[in-house]
Amino acid sequence: MKTLGSSKSISWYMKQTSILNKMPVCIYQVPKSLCCAKPEAFSPQLIAIGPYTHFHPELYPMERFKVFAAKGVLDHFEKHDFKQLVELLRNTGQFIRASYHKYLDFKEDTLLYVIAIDGLFLLDFFHNYLNEEVSCSFMTGLQDQVQLSGVKLTRDAIIRDIIMVENQIPTYMLLRILVLESSKPADSVLEYLGSMLLSFCKKHSPLKLTHIPTCSEAVSKHYHILDLMYHLVVSHTEKSETPTPDQSEGTSTLMKSSKSEATAASNHFKKVKNVLYIMDTRLCKKA
User: Fold this and answer.
1) In degrees to the nearest 10, what's the CA dihedral of 22, 24, 91, 2?
2) Taking the CA of residue 236 as centre, how many other CA atoms within 13 Å lie in the half-sphere pointing to its CB?
3) Whole-prediction pTM value?
4) Interatomic CA distance for residues 83 and 89, integer angstroms
5) 3-class SS of residue 205
6) Which residues are CB-neighbours of 19 under 8 A, at least 6 positions away?
7) How far apart are CA 105 and CA 110, in angstroms?
8) Structural domain boundaries of the chain?
């Protein structure tokens, strides 16, 4: 007969396995036809996040800063070093690769180190958006590495790069890292991460938010921070329903449905571009 503890362990294992088996492609590269006219509008200018941009030579100067921030998080929790964390993330390699549309020509260790360093950096950056009362049981006392750095950094430039299309890493990996490092229950960690992400989006959204999901939904229902930002400003009422064939009208109805879907997709894409353009304009004015 299974104990309560083993039942919870099995439930947690099945839930994680289910997530890994879905492996949604959710992070894409910007088509050259879009970025050729103004590449700086689509490419990070200061900091690389994730495997698409991690090895861009022009962004190398910030690698030391990211490692410094990531090490600060590990030192704060006092549970694992980089090597130990990478080993604990070993079974997520397939999920990480499947999340990116482009083939990632990296060795497994290299990819996991990239995700570990960048994930820890993002956790360090996002936690500063929570007040001390919310943060007290997790990361309170962790100093703002942007302010500590000897290099004068523009926070707005970092924010701008964090929401770049090619600078995304799966939200699930942020959750996985925080669960591994924190001693708190997984549900509490989920709520805490959701609070961080929502606080960041509320602070920097260029448009009025159409709705506010729960903290757990902010993590479980959104692939990455840009996906969350997009769905916070785009009304759900505009989401097109799945078309169903009408047998009486034959292919005519199907063609109308296809056109409707294409129009809806085009409108959503334009809104994504508008969101990024407005946000970029505001951040540039502050810089």
Assistant:
1) -30
2) 7
3) 0.74
4) 10
5) coil
6) 95, 172
7) 10
8) 16-286
**Residue count of the chain:** 287
Angle (nearest 5°) at CA 49 between 178 and 100? 90
Query: If you search the block for the tokens 């690698």, which residue do you land on?
Result: 63
- The rounded radius of gyration (Å) of the Cα atoms in the chain is 20
CA-CA distances (angstroms) from residue 99 to 37, 55, 116, 168, 174? Answer: 27, 18, 16, 10, 14
Provide the CA 209 distance to its chain's centre, in angstroms. 18
Residue 229: what residue type? M
Q: What is the pLDDT along the chain (287 residues), one digit of tens a residue?
A: 444 456 666 666 666 666 555 557 889 888 888 878 888 888 999 999 999 999 999 999 889 889 999 999 999 999 999 999 999 999 999 999 999 999 999 999 999 999 999 999 999 999 989 865 455 456 555 555 555 454 445 788 899 999 999 999 999 999 999 999 999 999 999 999 999 999 999 999 988 898 899 999 999 999 999 999 999 998 665 444 433 344 444 444 434 444 554 555 455 555 555 665 555 555 555 55
Place of tokens 């990024």: 276
Could you say which DSSP state residue 68 is in? H
The CA distances from residue 214 to 25, 138, 207, in Å, are 24, 19, 19
First and final C-alpha spacing in the chain: 62
In the structure encoding, which two tokens stand for residue 243, read together? 């078309």
The long-range contacts involving 258-265, CB below 8 angstroms and separated by at least 24 positions, are 264/238, 264/239, 264/240
Residue type, 40: E
- 161 touches 45 (CB < 8 A): yes
**Of 102, 97, 148, nearest to 124 (Cα)?**
148
